[in-house]
Design brief:
Blueprint (H helix, E strand, L loop, with lengths): L1 E5 L6 H12 L2 E4 H10 L3 H12 L5 H11 L9 E4 L5 H10 L4 E6 L2 H9 L1 E3 L6 E3 L26 H15 L1 H8 L3 E5 L4 H17 L1
Parallel strand pairs: 1-3, 1-4, 2-3, 4-7
Antiparallel strand pairs: 5-6
Helix pairs in contact: 1-9, 2-3, 4-5, 6-7
Bound molecules: adenosine monophosphate.
The site of adenosine monophosphate has 18 residues, from helix 2 and helix 3.
Length: 213
Amino acid sequence: MNLIFLGPPGAGKGTIAKMVKERLGIAHISTGDLFRQQIKDQTPLGKQVESILASGGLVDDEITNEMVRARLKEPDVKNGFILDGYPRTIAQANKLDNFSRIDTVFNFIIDEEEVIRRVSGRRVCQSTGRIYHIEFNPPKVEGVDDETGERLVQREDDKEDTIRNRLEVYRQQTYPLIDYYEKRGILRNLEIETGSEKAADIIAGMFNRFEEA
Ligand code: AMP
């Protein structure tokens, strides 16, 4: 099955996608993670998009579409995929229609102030990728990774000003996709206040039932 996770930054799409990926054996494709990897490796694409990610703006549609099109050709996608953070504009959604079939779009609903609390408290260990939250999931010792002892950092685009910008970009550019997929009858709204695990249970449960039927 081919799924899209739609929703504002900080809604927990990535966390839920990782759980659903394990449960359903499908690929998890996060365009944000793909761009961050390119930046880490300092590839030409990485250098090109670095300042865009830092500001919270969107990377050019053509660059993004091409990256996703190539990723969807990789072998781990054969049983299906979760697109996390893509499409983010109507132009991207139109393009995606040309190269893939989509079964269901999950729209994660969350209060914006909650997003700001979640994202601005997020800290990461750069070498392991482990994610903490100063309030909800703190490390054992303040400011350092539980296993490696490395100092935790705040992603540039998790800073409060940038999150507010990312939310504004979301409202202007991505929000219209809710209507786009609703009109097609494949949108499912999901309130995620119940927590990531419950949301993952609901999503995985829907598709397990299809498989058993
Ligand atoms: P994310 O981790 O999904 O919030 O993405 C982090 C950043 O990567 C975004 O703020 C954008 O700068 C860029 N990005 C990720 N996905 C897209 C996309 N579909 N279109 C354009 N830019 C994207």
